[in-house]
Amino acid sequence: MKHLLIVFAGILTAMNGSATLVRAQTAHVVEGTEDDNQKNVWKYKQDVSPAAAALGDPAKRLRIEVANGDTVAFRVTGNRKHGVIFERAKDEQGNKVWSVTGGPQKLADIDDTFKDFDKNNAQKTDPVDSGDIITITVTGLKPGDTNGILFACNPHSKKGSDPNHPKNREMLGVIVLKGN
Ligand SMILES: [Cu+2]
Fold first, then answer.
1. Can you give the residue ranges of every domain in the chain?
2. Per the count of CB atoms within 10 A, which of 22, 33, 37, 95 is most buried?
3. How remote is the CA of residue 146 from the centroid of ligand 1, in Å?
4. Helix, strand, or coil here: 90?
């Protein structure tokens, strides 16, 4: 048994080594946290999600630029609970745009409490107190913002508070192909 484990570890090391030679994979980290005014935000590098953008629309969101092959890890670093909603999760996973490659949370279908989301397409994780939420690996992202991976927060994007713009939410972001 011990022998087998050593052989297995050797294979993994070899696989990692060759993967590194082929391409440099960038690990992006998106943090669920609070800004200076205690508003809930997704933070990426120095940028934070704006107070409001609209569901289904990539405009005015926090932008994460990635290359195919990169990973995007969602993590809680603030004082409140956050989870991830992928607005077009089922279509995108079905079309191999991305896949879940790390936990601890898993994706599940949404219910009626997620107002104005596409119930047949969107999926969410549960909110977590701190640390890792979920990691995806992006593999088939196409150029252009309209092809971007739209994400939101469970629970902070579930409902709108602006009757004139019912699809406006806080904590909206989009993952787009770099250089486009
Ligand atoms: Cu949140």
1. 25-177
2. 33
3. 23
4. helix
